[in-house]
Amino acid sequence: MPFAETPLRDEYAAAVERVAGRTLDALRGGGGAAALADPDTAVPRPLLAAVRVLGADLFAPHLLTGTEPDGPTAALLAEARRVFPTPAAATPEAALAIAWQDWAAGQVLARTPYADTASAPTPAAPPGPAELGWQLWSVRMSQLSALALPGLDGPVHDAARTDTLGLARGTVRSMLRRDFTTAVRLARWLAWAGAEDRPPRLEVAPILERIHLVGIGAVRTRLELVVAERLLEGTPK
Amino acid sequence: MTDTQVLATAQQLGTRAMSWLHACYQGGWGRLADNTIIDLAEPNDVYKPLCEAAMASSLVLRDGVAGPQDARAARDMLDGAWEQLRGGDMLYERQLRHVTVTDPLETYAHFARVGYRHAALEELLESISRLRAVHAVEIQGSRQLAVANARRVIGLSHRPDWAELAARTWLGALPEPWTIAWSIAYQVTHTVFHLTDWGARPQDLPEPMRDYLRAWLPVWLDIWIEIGQWDLVGELLIVDACIGEPALGSSGWEALAAVQREDGLVPRDAEPIEDDEESAIRAHEHTAVVAVVAATVTLSRALNGAGPAAG
Fold first, then answer.
1. Could you tell me if B175 lies within 8 Å of chain A, comparing CB atoms?
2. DSSP-derived 3-state class of residue A185
3. CA quadruple A129, B178, B210, B112: dihedral positive or negative?
4. Element of type H or E holding A108
5. How confident is the model at residue A8 (pLDDT cuts 50, 70, 90)?
6. Who among A134, A135, A172 is closest to B178 (CB)?
7. How much is the pLDDT for A4?
């Protein structure tokens, strides 16, 4: 038991970083498979858990380059969803966020031979900015940033299209609070909305550059940053 | 429209702040020392607060939306301050001695606005505003606007290029809103105060600035409420009342009302209030001025629409 002293959640967090890193490499390499696991050996549980956490973002390299999701990654995600059922959430809001993240992963899987056999119902539309105020709404949207990918569309995306100002305010608020993780996730939504030809409200490129310069620790956050940059490159000038 | 709950909160906040400020001055605060000379070694000591209180009082009288008690307090504070300035003679002598300083001009505007006039000072100000030197003094964009607005309020004949002055400010550049800092925020608020003459001329704010402020004021208010910068929160509420249709809801007003002390003192920030009376006045008099102006301009804008056009 060489890792007996490593708390389990550290081990799982490290796996998320490793999987995010592989995905990032694939994205920077111009798409293609992330080669997450050796197909001939049993997949370790932390890796499977990490794959479940990353969800739709595993396929960012494909969706951003217009290629089809790769088979091995899809197989791994399907396996992860089988082994780890939807986690229990502390609050109804957290449960809804997880449901939407799962929905996004399911949508991508549906384009592969590994589509869920028992398709989950589409979750309820989350409350919008009119109900929550732009502060709370934008924080909730940041938790759903994995949905900001080409090829995914639904009520969450409609809300992002409709209220780019709320997203922009949330981005600026996070920047001023030096909460760069939330900022980059909201900037990603803004870049997505820009790619959808929505009014930009805020220049996203200087924000991404700033976050890049300030430096963000987590690889998973760097993945969000690069996804945002790619979405921005696709924005009609 | 500003909702009635906001107006009620604003009215109560402003009245209490006015009452505290008035009590401070009645209690002997704000006396210029007998040996005060026109060179003013310590202008921030008494002179600047005195002028700020006069400014708030002049806006209470200009806007005419205060109750009789507030109006009386405002008139009393203006009378007292005018007396301290020896009926304007001190401003006149200081401006005569120092051609390029701007505080006599700016201070006089608050008094002139509500009928305290000094003919010799006005003649002097007319004369020096014809000097290239006076306009070439190197000062910040928002300060340039303060000087221009003071000339406008007094009714001097100099006509600046307002659009050019506005463009030369930080706000005029419509900067990336996530780069704002505390000290820059004060430059932004003052740019708006002077361009609109404290809310009397909302239409004078260039349209791109208005759109920009409507987009980002709510964010700035939110972050400065979060860290308890109450003085700046109050200034942002004034800005909201100066830009036409308000962009902010009730959160700023509720936050200020919640921290206002029973006697009307509004703390400038989240630090503990000083035990010593005089230190407390020194630390928090500006925030009381801000609260009075925020309430006055907000109520005036809501009740009178565009409000009276000054100058």
1. no
2. helix
3. positive
4. helix A92-109
5. confident
6. A172
7. 57
Q: Using CB atoms, pick whichever of B180, B218, B226 lies closest to residue A169.
A: B218
Task: Give B178 to chain A, closest Cα distance, Å.
Answer: 5
- Residues of chain B contacting A202 with CB distance shorter than 8 Å: 177
Q: Which two tokens stand for residue A234?
A: 């696709």
Q: How far is CA B183 from CA A87, B7, B186, B190, in A?
A: 46, 28, 5, 11
Q: Is A172 within 8 Å of B216 when comparing Cβ atoms?
A: yes
Q: What is the per-residue pLDDT across A100-125, written as a single tens digit (0 to 9) for each?
A: 999 999 999 999 999 876 567 899 99
CA A177 – CA A214 distance, rounded (Å): 13
Residue B243 to residue B225: CA distance in whole angstroms: 20
pLDDT in the model for residue B309 = 43
Domains in chain B: ranges and CATH: 4-304 (1.50.10)
- Put simply, whether A168 touches B (Cβ < 8 Å) is yes
Torsion, Cα B54 B59 B60 B62, to 10 degrees, reads: 120
pLDDT score, position B160: 96
CB pairs under 8 A between A and B: 31
Rounded-to-integer distance, Cα B105 and Cα A199, Å: 45
pLDDT value for B311: 36
| Residue in this structure with the two tokens 């031979």, named with its chain if needed | A113
Q: What is the pLDDT of residue A235?
A: 52
pLDDT tens by residue, B5-35: 999 999 999 999 999 999 999 988 877 776 6
Dihedral of alpha carbons A28, A29, A33, A36, sign: negative
Q: Nearest CA of chain A to the CA of B217: how many Å?
A: 10
Closest residue in A to B226 (Cα) is A177
Chain B 112-131, residues with CB within 8 Å of chain A CB atoms: none
Judge if ipTM > 0.90.
yes
Distance CA A24, CA A218 (A): 12
